[in-house]
Amino acid sequence: MNLRMKGILLMVASLLLAGTLAGCGSNEAPPSETGKPAASTDAKLDPVTLKIMFPGDPPANWSEVKGEMENRLAGSLNVKLNIVFIPWADVLQKRQVALSSAEDYDLIWDNNPVQNIAAGLYEPLDELIEKYGPEIQSNRSPQLLEANKVNGKLYAVPLEVNFIRPWTFVIRKDIREKLGIAPIKSYDDLIKFMYTVKEKVPEVTPFIPNGTEHVGVRLASMLDPKANLAPVLNYPGLYTKGNDGKVYNIFDDMDPMLMENFEQNHKFYKDGILAKDALLLKNGEFTKGKAAVSTFFDFGVNLGTRTGLEKSVPGATAEAFSLYDPGMKLSSTYKAGNYIAVPVVSKNKERAIQFVNWLNQKENYDLLAYGIKGKNWEEAGEDLYNPIQENPYAGIPFAWGWNPKLDRIDASLPEDVIKLNKWQRDPSHFTTDILSGFTFDPSLVSNEVAQLSNAGKEFYDPIVLGLVEPKEGLAKLKEITYENVKKIQTEYQKQLDAFLASKK
């Protein structure tokens, strides 16, 4: 962490501490042993409506689940919920507008809160969680909590059930069986399946990945797991490998597996395996029945994808093929992929954390994640559940409560998928990555980051998705971005070196 960011955070923390001391006369009651607020010496807690920002659309049966949540909350925290769902295409922009204009949100979902923390937009939560959040703490491993602090403080509750970022290929099982193809067991098998679909089921696009998320560095890393390749945030052209504490760029140090991946995707594109408009399409096309293969951030096929596909194409079924294996010895940074944060402008900070803690109690977590028991789901064991197919509820726990101790696994998934899910939720199965606990402050290269991001969308994404010949595309990309890539790489390495030195 550089001195500039430390100074910003120290100043913000000082201002927030003054505000906290000024508000010590709050009527909020301390937590009881169960994590619920203890009875106030005065009376029941004053009613509060919490305004919360979530990504995406409300799940089916949301109004019933929300009503049940509020019924339970009325008897404990005296909270009502004003949930604002923002479409995925708009959520990043609208979140920044809401934060910069000091809109009156009490909780906000964030997938990468570092810049908002540096800007002083999120409340430091350590004292609030210590006082009001025993279940927030107890349901998260020390590795998860420590790795997601910034400058030694926790500014957002990490929401994660996975100690790696799992993803999988999802396949149209009904098409595979119709074509008489055996279950997919290898990446080569998957390629053969996609080419057979191209030949014999021309009305379906063989492969529509979820943009560039899984077909670049992440795919290369799975095809060569010992290399330990990983993208550096979302900066095109930068990656790490070998857990050696070094940052590499694809112009000076192109990994052979990554280049092979670019070339394979270009062949897919020329052969009509990848959609011609691959830059615009995401894995939602699979749910609509328009793709034979896509990629998702899951092991197995999640409930929303299954039910969506069956609704779009009656009789269609899906299955998963993963390149992961529980025998792999992988490293983990223990960084979360989602967070829930309290904006500094919130007037209900204590109640917001009490509410997040309430969500981290088992019966309440079950409600937000799976819906109403007996109506939307049934228990299938301590860490398993069965969705009721006639009335499923695809909850959104990733946005406000996700944790590995309470989250259940769909018991209807294949046994190998259940095994993978259990494996990746146990921190002891992974070694600690050298980057664990490191947070890059991009403020000193903010212009370069912005320029690289824009150029990446225009020139790097087409390379990853195979739309252009790799060597030609890389030459053009280098001409436009090399200077910015090098500046970001240098600053990133400088901060990482300082972080590693501080740990010695």
From TrEMBL:
- By what name is this protein known? ABC transporter substrate-binding protein
Q: Keyword annotations for this protein?
A: Signal
One Pfam family in the UniProt entry: DUF3502
Q: Does the UniProt entry include the keyword Translocase? A: no
Query: Which positions fall inside the DUF3502 domain?
Result: 435-501
Species of origin reads Paenibacillus solisilvae
Asked if the Swiss-Prot or TrEMBL record annotates the protein with the keyword Lipoprotein, the reply is: no
PANTHER family hit by this protein: ABC TRANSPORTER SOLUTE BINDING PROTEIN-SUGAR TRANSPORT, ARABINOSE-BINDING PROTEIN-RELATED
Q: Which residues form the signal peptide?
A: 1-22
